[in-house]
Amino acid sequence: MLSVPRIIPNDINSLSIVNGSFSEIKEGMFSHMPSLQLLLLNSNSFTTIRDDAFSGLPHLEYLFIENNKIETTARYAFRGLRDLTHLSLANNNMKALPRDLFSDLDSLIELDLRGNAFECDCRAKWLMTWLKSTNATVSDIMCAGPDNMKGKRLNDVRSLHSDCISTDFVLHQSVATQSLSVDTFSYKNDVYVAIASPSADSCMVMQWDHIEMNFRTYDNITGQSIVGCKAVTIDSHVFVIVAQLFGGSRIFKFNEDQNRFTKFQDIKVAKISKPNDIEAFQIAKEWFFVIADSSKAGLSTLYKWNEQGFYDHQSLHEWFRDTDAEFVNMDGKARLILASRSQVPVIYQWNKGEQKFKPQGEIPNMEDVVAVKAFQIKDEHYLAMTRYIGDSKILRWNPKEFVEVQALPSRGSMTLQPFSFKGRHYLALGSDYTFSHIYLWDEEEKVFQLFKEIYIQAPRSFTVVSTDRRDFVFASSFKGNTQIYEHVIIDLSLAA
């Protein structure tokens, strides 16, 4: 029997076809019987149910397609069956069902899916979600695979919610300027970035455009070989600290009347010969910034805000060619870590009585560190230590010292930047010689695993910028354009 005979009266309300030789249920196959209320199609040879297979059956209440060989069901197979109350697809060869297969079944009371070898992978995520929301009684759906799910009920598989979500970094915008660093700040509900570009002798300030959905040039602070721009907001006033190789470093303040940044202060630079990094932070509501000096005759210096401006507060670490400064607050104690090309990183601890940093110790076996970044995963404190030659290192606070937990091969690396989006923890490891690597934290193994490769010419920093519920990473390049990547969430079940 290859088709439904047209001689069947069109006013019958029930039909049973058993042991037929049909291979598929085609579109509108029963539409010439609009009065059908019960349709039984058991023990046939069906392998496929096509879209709109039951169109023209507005009164159908009972549909049984059991003991067939059905492997494929089209997404709109049951479209239009709004009066259907009982559906059985038991004992077929189905491994997966298309998303929203049952969305039209408003009156469904009972669904039987027993006897199918369902794969409880991302393809089943929608079904698991639907099971929790439907009022229908549904048979237990048992998992035949993957191996780690075999024998479990689909309802009990919790891991699909996390396992079926992935992420990616997609190029969003390219800024036609070389850069050494990028900093971000917010002002009156708008998001800005300050890009230090020594080749252009500028600190380019960009603003997020909520209409165009990209970053556009807002202002341009000019100078001489600008190597760092650090924004600080104090009492609703925005300052940008601009570190220069020549002509002294300066502080600019946003002038609302002129709608641009104007010079606010020259920084006392007698002790600063070659600024390499700026770190701004608060201790007990007091604002500070430190400039790490990388020259042989340099002296890294701490500056403090005194309501009129930033002034020299403390000299740190003389003659050590400091490459990076990182502020971290652990165990209720403020600490400053200075990395150097000529010795291992030094840890300073804030002394409340003297209102100054005091040397506390060193991080051993970590020579030639070019950058150090602190980050937290849950309640654990970590450091990412960048080395240009050799292995860059991840260290954990444990609980009186930092101990190594992971080594990452790095050749020509000037930055190892930790950052987090949507509860996921990443590391971006730059490279002057090959692709830069983005690593993702493995919660079970407690280490970072390689996640993605991106190509940036001579990357010098990776900076997180978030706006309009979107997350971006600015990748600065010493030899090419500054690249802006968007962090996107991918629901793997949608592609399944």
From TrEMBL:
Write the record's keywords in alphabetical order, separated by commas: Glycoprotein, Leucine-rich repeat, Repeat, Secreted, Signal
Listed PANTHER family: LEUCINE-RICH REPEAT LGI FAMILY MEMBER 2, LEUCINE-RICH REPEAT-CONTAINING PROTEIN
Q: Name one GO cellular component term.
A: extracellular space
- Any idea where this protein resides? Secreted
Protein name in UniProt: LRRCT domain-containing protein
Reply yes or no: does the keyword Signal apply: yes
Biological process according to GO: inhibitory synapse assembly
Hydrolase: present as a keyword of the record? no
Main location per the UniProt record: secreted
**Could you tell me which species this protein originates from?**
Megalops atlanticus
Domain named LRRCT is located at 116-165
